[in-house]
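Same chain as my last thread, 123 residues:
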Amino acid sequence: MQTLQEIHRKQKKALFFLLALFVLGWALTDLKPIFAGLILGSLFGLYNFWILVRRMERFDKIFTEGKKRASLGTLMRFASGVAAAAVAISLPEHFNLVSSVIGLMIPYILLLADGIIFRTKNH
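reply #2:
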């Protein structure tokens, strides 16, 4: 079983690789708003994933100690997503809204793919 920190480390590596590809796409093509939106959304998505990992660690600690219920930071992650969309909407000449939303989902897509690959390898 992978630990949460191992998963987070793998996610960061994959996301930084994708961000490098997005920066290359932004620099070398005429699709600057699309790649800028992917970069913006991916950065906010990485932040959201970091929040989720921190909250899950805290949740696990509180659960094992038998204390009160803890939050997983859903409101904070939702607000971060709204902030990414607000930036894309307020600067449409620089950021594409649809690609920003897609970028927000990239960490979760990578997490799903990693889970499928991990389960396939270990079964």
